[in-house]
Structure to design on (1518 residues):
């Protein structure tokens, strides 16, 4: 019994009239947790009852605390008939289980009914007391923090990034159970809501366990999704990045040692002690980092998994369709190729070959065939792999965890199948070294009933397959990691498309090392770390020994653009040039990524949202044939999306895409593809050539004229766009930046001589100078379509900018005005249409939606729509649903115009400053100490300026002695803290033992936030709030609602129904955040919006799933008064950083 | 799935067609802070249909301003209309708007929404002022709509507002204006106007007669204010249980005593002499005043004496016009003359030896004087 949950029902208000006779309600409340139920007294004849109940106490396992929601039901007492339910409130108590999050839930929460919507509010108080739990092999993972934010949360710093965690749980969908035929829609909806709550809780707990096993204390970039597979069941799956985070304290004196806040030490030592050497973070030279994915499952299960997967799984020829979205100019046809080099497997190959007019360079074809070989061998490998890793969805309560761990250890030693994936999109400075390009994989599956919910192995195996493919793609790009990783599905009837995508990258090993005081681990890892540094050098990054020369030149603003792969073995045809910033390393001509624009990146001008939209008809089919047809269409779809993206990028005069997200949606008679990204001009990359139209039959004069007209139009558009986005790249780069090193090229060739590429350098150099125009052949019907598509994109109206990433380059001076919104549209296609017609319609409707948004938000001008997230679906035949969630943020135009540059620089400096500060902490931590004073050692300062990647362990040890004294102090402090902790609380986990004063303090602050009337709660899909500082993360918000109506017309039709529902969802999110004591939700997203209607029956149903991080923020203006000291420290640090 | 049935296309379901090939079935926009356009709100309040509102907006030039198309405008207008409809239920109880959770609306916006929702057209209120706020009256609103050129929808909203305020205030104690202001969160002036409307509806004052047509709502509102402040129970004693919708019965009873001013021949003559002495030489319509004195005095005192009957209260304004304003007007008295006359008429009564009802006289004549002066225009 490690926990006691306490709930108190205070009052209700705005209740609906339940008794027609008296126009009043006799309300009472049932409070249920697990199988225990308490009731309040009936408060007769009131719409604003005051129950003021006693504290209802539930004594429960912390496992249940994590899985179960607290369920509050408000009912109307009826003497003669059954009591009528007014509505329910589900409260996720997870935020209360972590001492660093919320301490109490208190406030007015909407009472929700799936048929009537919000019906009044209820005021509740909920608290949790956690007790000492000495059982280290328990099933709960209380205290692991979860963040939706895909970066290191603002008031934390990363001690270590452990890597990928994933899990999935399955169940039958209550909506499809036989009982659904006899129960009411309300009962069915509630069963579903409750089940999903339970499954989410379980999923989170299991992920938490994995994190603890890895030695982490938090999950960042937590992405949880539902697959409503209909008859075959309900899948809830989640991925995330396990980290060890440490809270940054404003005052250095209170800084605690990382291990203080981390449960990892307590947890790990007994469990991992003997196996410690077997848990290396780095497994070998080629991959300096390894994300550890410990899955615990019993071996017998894994075998059954293998067999069952071969039973149920439909194997289609291109079972998985993988495409490299590594952009490049058409090297296959150097003269007139319309094809960018999307890397298409098997069947697309012939088409490309037939088009090529000149034989491709030798090395390209080599790599090509290598790729083919790889994919063949890969699919063989798959069969074997099925038995390997996987999320132990079945990590049974029955199986002894220790046993499982041991098993898994040996197993993982045998076949190292970990995923070096990171769901992060923004990284601590110095973490991201190089970016290869986008890797993605898709797979078409036929759904089959999940026979045993406890063994979700089929779904596991599917994802397994995809992840393996992603991993191999990344490897082919010379990268050892995948960042900005995400997974998604699209389901239509029994067909399911699984997709995964990410950005191949090389990461610094710095955050991969284990915690400083963990001597055992350190010893075992130390040699490996050194080794990994060496291997990095081989891969093109200057290791520690060569770091001096490297540091001088490479600004962090271009480092990530440098190619990670070997020039000789480029996995796809690409034009390489020397970096336009440092002139020393090779960069590709175009860069596509799924991550956010790194803050330190050098960008010219502003960015903009770029979308490729595609619609393809397909024949109605069933089963295997259908799946086959879809998987045959997929590569074409991807290829065309890619071409569109490329064209549109060039049309805007830009050379890189960030935040690329390609969504493919399947319907009965069509496939939809929507790719969104933010285009920017990276200063380090070459300027993109124009788009040239070429006709193959030059005989006709009118035709020629037509072509030249089009060409002119395109050229005009490019010029206009360059103007609008302020893209004026500096012409003479070489003289400015190249001057410190007279012969950058030679120099770099020298460095490169480690690899065998030195001979080839000159050859590739030849191609670098001429920026060949991107050629579109007009004869090609596709190209005509492309050109039309290009020119139909209307420019954003004056004063507006848009992007789908977190920040917009070139805009810094945000005001505090933000407006988050969700817009949903459903379109009906009224006629049978050709592909082209469909394309145009789909493109138009996306454009119109954007135009509507601009119009709606015109009062916020000048403003930028950030994090524009489009989701498309085909809910029914001939219906297309588009949902957009984004935030509009105003910025100060005056400043932009007058001293925009200066303010920009200032902000940049500020950003760097912050980074530096963080960086320094990290450096010091690596050097076995967490100095309470950021300015403790001058040596630390000098290191700040150095390129992060250059940091090697040896550097840290040099300054080790200097900091010994402070370290000892630190130790004393730590001991003191522990002693204090043990006196005050019985908990063994420091983090789960809030100091009483802390608790009361935050309780007070809660009060102040939920003032007299309704507290304002801001919502944003971004991880930050402009002009404000997030001071506390209160926990994850993950809510699932169903709304149904059988009086659709009376509720204002489908629009009225959905409008109300979305407003209600917002209201419930805000209320729960306010009850946790927060005043904002960051990283908010609407992950699911499934809308169904049956107008003949006057019915509609909608499911919405939203998530985000509840936070407390403070306006920077308010903060300034209190934090003068840290700020001055920051300035000094920045000076130091500037000086070096 | 319960909702999966055979699907029959219903053309009228689509919101609008973009072109032949495609129509929009569902189109919503929900902001965390509810976006409300003042201009569209006003069009909605005015009862315009979505299409008419779009036309007005297009003419207003918002399209050129923001590079929008008619389709965008249509979508936005429909969306806003839906938002307003959802808010309407809250606007019926403005206090709820402040502590509801569904819409996050900044306080200044909330105030704007309420104020505009409860605003009314003078031409409309003039039509229903003093009428019983009943279903019957509501049924006749289409005539009012035709007469005033205000859309029926808007008429209904305004009528319902009157009725709602009336119903709430009817059962409350304490000062009328304050009650309205607190319950409906209205600005002072608007609260006063509503007080007048409630007061008129309560006493069913006749305002529709042809002779009263020249009077504006603000004239009546002013008079109502005078009556509320001086002739109701709350006016003399605000600790009283009763509220100030009803006239002070005791006072009305006492008014009968004023009859002595016209029934006692001596008193009447004495009064006339005093007034004439005071007025002589001060105005160039002295002769007309002198000639009409007895007539006017009888008129005013008779009005006072009859007020005890509820039916005669209704005719208060028509009586004032017929018995006093019209005769004065036919004698071409200016409002300065009327003011002069009424001042001396009131003051002289206090000098009369046998006249004892000074308090009642002052209370009565104060209101009569300010009402007449307000009503004395073309």
């Amino acid at each position: 019994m490690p926990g006691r949950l306490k709930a108190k029902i205070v009052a209700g208000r705005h209740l609906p009239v339940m008794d027609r006779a008296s126009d009043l309600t006799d309300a009472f409340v049932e409070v249920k947790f697990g199988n225990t139920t308490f009731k309040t007294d009936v408060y007769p004849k009131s719409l604003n009852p005051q129950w003021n109940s006693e504290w209802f106490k539930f004594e429960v396992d912390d496992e249940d605390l994590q899985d179960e929601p607290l369920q509050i039901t408000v009912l109307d007492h009826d003497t003669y008939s059954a009591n009528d339910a007014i509505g329910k409130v589900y409260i996720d108590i997870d935020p209360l289980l972590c001492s660093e999050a919320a301490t109490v839930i208190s406030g007015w929460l909407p009472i929700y009914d799936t048929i009537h919507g919000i019906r009044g509010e209820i005021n509740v108080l909920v608290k949790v007391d956690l007790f000492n739990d000495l059982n280290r092999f328990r099933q709960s993972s209380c205290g692991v923090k979860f963040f939706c934010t895909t970066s290191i949360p603002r008031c934390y710093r990363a001690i270590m990034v452990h890597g990928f965690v994933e899990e999935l749980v399955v169940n039958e969908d209550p909506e499809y159970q036989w009982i659904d035929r006899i129960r009411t829609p309300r009962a069915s909806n509630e069963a579903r809501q409750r089940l999903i709550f339970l499954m989410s809780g379980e999923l989170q707990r299991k992920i938490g366990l994995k994190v603890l096993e890895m030695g982490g204390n938090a999950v960042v970039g937590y992405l949880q999704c539902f697959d409503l597979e209909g008859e075959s069941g309900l899948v809830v799956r989640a991925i995330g990045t396990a980290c060890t985070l440490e809270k940054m304290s404003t005052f250095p004196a209170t800084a605690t040692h990382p291990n203080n806040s981390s449960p990892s030490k307590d947890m790990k030592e007994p469990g991992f002690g003997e196996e410690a050497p077997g848990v290396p973070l780095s497994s070998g030279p080629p991959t300096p980092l390894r994300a550890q994915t410990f899955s615990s499952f019993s071996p017998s299960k894994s075998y059954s998994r293998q067999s069952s997967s071969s039973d149920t799984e439909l194997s289609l020829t291109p079972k998985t369709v993988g495409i490299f979205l590594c952009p490049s100019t058409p090297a296959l046809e150097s003269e007139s190729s319309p094809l960018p080099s999307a890397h298409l497997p098997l069947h697309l190959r012939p088409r490309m070959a037939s088009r090529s007019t000149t034989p491709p360079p030798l090395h390209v074809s080599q790599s090509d065939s290598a790729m083919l070989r790889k994919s063949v061998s890969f699919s063989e490998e798959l069969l074997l792999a099925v038995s390997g890793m996987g999320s132990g969805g079945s990590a049974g309560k029955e199986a002894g965890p220790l046993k499982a761990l041991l098993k898994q250890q040996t197993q993982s030693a045998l076949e190292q199948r970990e995923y070096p994936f990171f769901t992060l999109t923004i990284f601590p400075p110095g973490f991201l070294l190089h970016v290869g390009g986008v890797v993605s994989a898709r797979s078409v599956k036929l759904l089959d009933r999940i026979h045993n919910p406890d063994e979700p192995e089929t779904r596991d195996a599917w994802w397994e397959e995809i992840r393996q493919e992603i991993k191999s793609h990344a490897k082919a790009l010379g990268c050892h990691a995948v960042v900005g990783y995400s997974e998604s599905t699209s389901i239509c009837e029994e067909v399911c498309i699984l997709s995964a995508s990410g950005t191949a990258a090389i990461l610094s090993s710095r955050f991969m090392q284990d915690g400083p005081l963990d001597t055992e681990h350190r010893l075992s890892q130390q040699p490996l770390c050194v080794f990994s540094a060496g291997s990095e050098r081989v891969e093109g990054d200057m290791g520690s020994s060569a770091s001096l020369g490297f540091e001088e030149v490479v600004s962090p603003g271009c480092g990530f653009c440098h190619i990670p792969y070997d020039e000789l073995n480029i996995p796809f045809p690409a034009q390489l040039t020397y970096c336009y910033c440092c002139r020393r390393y090779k960069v590709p001509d175009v860069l596509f990524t799924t991550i956010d624009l790194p803050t330190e990146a050098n960008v010219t001008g502003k960015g903009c949202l770029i979308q490729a939209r595609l619609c393809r008809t397909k024949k109605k089919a069933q089963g295997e044939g259908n799946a086959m047809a879809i998987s045959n269409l997929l590569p074409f779809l991807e290829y065309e999306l890619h071409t569109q993206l490329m064209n549109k990028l060039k049309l805007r005069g830009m050379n890189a895409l960030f935040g690329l997200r390609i969504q493919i949606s399947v319907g009965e008679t069509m496939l939809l593809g929507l790719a969104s990204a933010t285009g920017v001009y990276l200063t380090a990359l070459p300027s993109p050539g124009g788009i040239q139209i070429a006709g193959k039959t030059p005989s006709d004069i009118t035709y020629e004229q037509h072509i030249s007209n089009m060409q002119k139009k395109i050229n005009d558009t490019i010029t206009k766009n360059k103007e609008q986005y302020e893209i004026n790249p500096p012409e003479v780069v070489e003289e400015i930046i190249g001057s410190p090193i007279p012969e950058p090229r030679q120099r770099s060739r020298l460095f490169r001589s480690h690899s065998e590429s030195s001979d080839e350098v000159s050859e590739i150099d030849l191609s670098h100078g001429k920026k060949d125009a991107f050629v579109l052949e007009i004869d090609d019907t596709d190209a005509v379509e492309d050109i039309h598509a290009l020119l139909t994109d209307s420019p954003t109206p004056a004063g507006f900018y848009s992007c789908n990433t977190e920040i917009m380059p070139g805009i810094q001076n945000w005001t505090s005005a933000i407006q988050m919104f969700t817009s949903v549209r459903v379109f009906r296609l009224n006629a049978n249409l050709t592909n082209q017609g469909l394309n145009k319609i789909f493109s138009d409707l996306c454009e119109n939606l954007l135009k509507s948004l601009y119009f709606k938000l015109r009062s916020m001008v000048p403003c930028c729509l950030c994090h524009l997230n489009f989701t498309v679906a085909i809910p029914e035949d001939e219906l297309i649903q588009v949902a957009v969630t984004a935030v509009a943020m105003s910025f100060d135009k005056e400043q932009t115009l007058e001293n925009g540059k200066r303010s920009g620089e200032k902000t940049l400096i500020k950003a760097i400053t912050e980074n530096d500060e963080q960086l320094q902490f990290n450096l010091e931590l690596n050097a076995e100490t967490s100095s309470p004073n950021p300015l403790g050692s001058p040596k630390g300062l000098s290191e700040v300026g150095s390129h992060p990647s250059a940091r090697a362990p040896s550097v840290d040890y040099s300054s080790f002695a200097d900091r010994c004294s402070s370290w000892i102090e630190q130790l004393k402090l730590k001991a003191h803290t522990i002693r204090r902790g043990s006196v005050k609380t019985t908990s063994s986990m420091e983090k789960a033992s809030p100091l009483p004063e802390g608790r009361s303090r935050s309780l007070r602050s809660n009060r102040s936030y939920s003032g007299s009337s309704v507290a304002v709660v801001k919502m944003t899909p971004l991880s930050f709030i402009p002009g404000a500082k997030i001071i506390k993360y209160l926990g994850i918000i993950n809510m699932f609602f169903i709304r149904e109506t059988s009086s659709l017309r009376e509720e204002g039709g489908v629009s009225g129904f959905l409008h109300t529902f979305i407003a209600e969802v917002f209201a419930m999110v805000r209320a729960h955040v306010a009850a946790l004591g927060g005043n904002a939700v960051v990283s908010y997203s609407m992950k699911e919006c499934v809308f169904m209607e049956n107008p003949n029956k006057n019915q509609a149903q909608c499911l919405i799933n939203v998530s985000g991080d509840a936070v407390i923020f403070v306006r920077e203006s308010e903060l300034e008064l209190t934090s003068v000291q840290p700020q001055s420290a920051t300035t000094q640090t920045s000076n130091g950083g500037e000086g070096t | 799935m319960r909702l999966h049935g055979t699907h029959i296309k219903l053309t009228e379901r689509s919101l609008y067609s973009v072109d032949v090939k495609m129509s929009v079935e569902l189109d919503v926009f929900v902001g965390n802070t509810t976006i409300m356009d003042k201009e569209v709100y006003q069009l909605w309040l005015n009862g315009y249909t979505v299409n008419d509102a779009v036309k007005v907006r297009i003419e207003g030039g918002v399209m050129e301003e923001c590079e929008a198309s008619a389709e965008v405008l249509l979508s936005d207008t429909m969306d806003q209309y839906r938002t307003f409809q959802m808010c309407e239920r809250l606007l019926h109880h403005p206090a709820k708007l402040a502590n509801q959770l569904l819409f996050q609306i900044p306080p200044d916006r909330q105030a704007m929404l309420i104020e505009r929702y409860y605003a009314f057209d003078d031409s409309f209120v003039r039509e229903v002022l003093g009428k019983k706020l009943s279903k019957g009256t509501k049924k006749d609103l289409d005539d009012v709509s035709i007469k005033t050129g205000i859309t029926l929808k808007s008429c209904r909203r305004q009528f319902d507002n009157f009725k709602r305020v009336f119903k709430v205030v009817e059962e409350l104690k304490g000062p009328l204006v304050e009650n309205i202001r607190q319950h409906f969160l209205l600005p002072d002036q608007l609260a006063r106007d509503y007080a007048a409307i409630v007061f008129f509806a309560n006493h069913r004052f006749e305002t529709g007669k042809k002779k009263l047509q020249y009077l504006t709502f603000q004239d009546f509102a002013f008079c109502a204010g005078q009556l509320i402040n001086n002739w109701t129970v709350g006016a003399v004693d605000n600790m009283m249980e009763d509220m100030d919708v009803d006239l002070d019965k005791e006072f009305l009873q006492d008014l009968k005593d004023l009859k002595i001013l016209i029934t006692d021949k001596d008193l009447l003559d004495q009064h006339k002499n005093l007034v004439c002495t005071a007025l002589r030489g001060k105005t160039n319509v002295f002769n007309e005043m002198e000639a009409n004195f007895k007539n006017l005095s009888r008129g005013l005192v008779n009005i006072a004496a009859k007020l005890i009957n509820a039916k005669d209260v209704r005719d208060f304004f028509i009586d004032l016009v017929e018995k006093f304003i019209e005769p004065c007007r036919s004698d071409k008295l200016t409002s300065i003359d009327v003011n002069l006359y009424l001042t001396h008429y009131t003051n002289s009564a206090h000098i009369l030896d046998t006249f004892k009802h000074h308090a009642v006289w002052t209370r009565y004549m104060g209101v009569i004087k300010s009402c007449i002066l307000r009503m004395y225009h073309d």
Observations:
- Confidence is low (pLDDT under 50) at residues 4-12 of chain B.
- The first strand of chain B starts at residue 16 and ends at 19.
- The beta strands of chain B are 16-19, 22-31.
- The radius of gyration of chain B is 27 Å.
